[in-house]
Amino acid sequence: MSAKQVSNLGSFESPVNVASREAALELSADKVSVHKNGIEFRSPSAFHEWAEMTVSLQSPSDGSRLSCHGIVVSCSGNKHTGYLVSMVFTSLTRQAQARLNTMASSPLGF
Predict the structure, then answer these.
(1) Interior angle at CA 89, CA 85 and CA 92, nearest 5
(2) What is the mean pLDDT of the segment spanning 46-70?
(3) What is the pTM of this model?
């Protein structure tokens, strides 16, 4: 299941750090949508499908960080307009899943 198929979307104001072996990005809030099972984000560079990545989300409400590991399930676009990357989180603890659900369903995104 891709992150695009999740119905509860959220966005937030803090930057998001995305890192893989190929690249590391700090993304602004307007380029990221949080879902309860993953994220979608706009990127200036492409990522290979099935690439493993680490994402660090910071809550604007209390400043707490949530670090998640995941896999890229979709990357579409081109170098001129940018890429839309969909990522599904893997191996979330129950506590991390609960925090992510709260972030995704909150009106503020967190």
Answers:
(1) 165
(2) 83
(3) 0.72
- The domain segmentation of the chain, as residue ranges, is 3-105
Residue 49, SS3 per DSSP: coil
d(CA 50, CA 106): 29
> Which residue bears the tokens 């979608």?
40
The beta strands (E) that lie in 1-110 are given as 16-19, 24-27, 32-34, 38-43, 52-58, 65-78, 82-90
Q: Tell me the β-bridge partners of 98.
A: none
Q: 37 near 62, Cβ under 8 Å?
A: no
The CATH class given to the 3-105 domain equals mainly beta
Tokens coding 94:
């129950």
- The dihedral region occupied by 50, where left means phi > 0, alpha psi between -120 and 50, and beta the remainder, is left
